[in-house]
Write a sequence for this structure.
C-alpha cells in the first residue's frame, strides 16, 4: 500500500486550515453585515415614531387627541400650539402629535415634525367638507406632496360621523379627488412661473395626463370614518397599532 509523503500531508493540512479560516472569516463578515443592517433598521424605526394629526381648524384633531390620550371629549378645544403625547399599546409605544389647524402655524409645526413621522393622519370634518373643499384639498395636497413623507402610510380620517349631515368616507374621497385635480393644475402653473430647486420642489401627485386619483400616488392612502365625540376611534387605534 502506497504511503502519502509527510510533506504532502503537511501541505494538505495547511490547505484545510486555510480553508477553515476563510470560512470563519466569511461567516464573521456576513454576521457583521447582518447586525449592521438590523441596527440601521432599528435606528430608522426609532427615528420615525411620530403619528401626526393634521388638517383644518375645527375638524376635530384635538378632540381625537384628547380621546386617544386621556379618554375624554373636550367641550371646546382650539389649539394654538402642538399637543404631544406618548401613545402606548401593550409593550409598544409611539408619539401622537396634534398639529394646530390654523394656516399661520400649521405649516411651521408640520415642518418641525414631518421628518420623524411614521404615519400621517389628515382629519376631515365630514359635515363641512363640501363647503370647505377647496381649503381641505389644498391643505391635503401640500402634505401629500411633501418629499419628506413620501414613505409614510397615510390616513384620511373622516370625523363627526355622529352627526346626521355627515358624508361617508367614499363620498368624501370622491369629492376630494375632483378638487385635488383642480389644485394640481393650479399649483403646476404656479411652479412653472416661479420655479423651484429640485431639493424643495413638491412631488407631482398622480399620473401625468390623467385625472387625479389617490390610487395613483406613492403613499398608501386609506379613508376611515370616526366620531371623536362618541369615541368611535377603533379604526384609528388599530391603524396605529399595526405600525408600532
Amino acid at each position: 500500500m502506497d504511503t502519502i509523503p509527510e510533506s504532502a500531508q503537511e501541505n494538505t493540512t495547511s490547505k484545510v486550515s486555510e480553508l477553515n479560516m476563510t470560512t470563519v472569516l466569511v461567516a464573521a463578515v456576513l454576521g457583521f453585515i447582518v447586525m449592521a443592517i438590523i441596527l440601521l433598521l432599528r435606528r430608522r424605526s426609532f427615528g420615525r415614531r411620530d403619528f401626526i394629526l393634521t388638517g383644518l381648524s375645527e375638524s376635530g384633531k384635538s378632540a381625537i387627541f384628547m380621546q386617544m390620550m386621556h379618554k375624554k371629549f373636550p367641550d371646546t378645544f382650539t389649539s394654538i400650539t402642538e399637543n404631544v403625547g406618548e401613545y402606548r399599546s401593550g409593550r409598544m409605544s409611539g408619539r401622537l402629535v396634534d398639529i394646530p389647524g390654523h394656516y399661520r402655524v400649521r405649516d411651521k409645526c408640520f415642518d418641525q415634525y414631518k421628518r420623524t413621522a411614521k404615519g400621517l393622519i389628515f382629519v376631515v370634518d365630514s359635515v363641512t367638507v363640501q363647503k370647505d373643499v377647496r381649503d381641505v384639498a389644498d391643505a391635503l395636497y401640500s402634505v401629500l406632496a411633501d418629499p419628506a413623507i413620501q414613505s409614510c402610510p397615510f390616513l384620511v380620517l373622516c370625523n363627526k360621523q355622529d352627526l346626521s349631515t355627515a358624508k361617508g368616507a367614499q363620498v368624501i374621497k370622491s369629492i376630494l379627488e375632483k378638487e385635488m385635480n383642480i389644485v394640481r393644475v393650479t399649483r403646476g402653473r404656479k411652479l412653472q412661473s416661479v420655479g423651484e430647486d429640485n431639493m424643495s420642489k413638491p412631488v407631482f401627485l398622480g399620473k401625468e395626463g390623467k385625472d387625479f386619483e389617490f390610487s395613483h400616488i406613492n403613499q398608501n392612502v386609506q379613508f376611515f370614518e370616526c366620531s371623536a365625540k362618541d369615541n368611535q376611534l377603533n379604526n384609528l387605534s388599530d391603524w396605529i397599532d399595526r405600525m408600532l
Q: What stands out?
A: The longest helix spans residues 6-47. Strands lie at 50-55, 83-89, 92-98, 117-125, 154-159, 221-225. The chain has two domains: 15-43, 48-195+202-243.
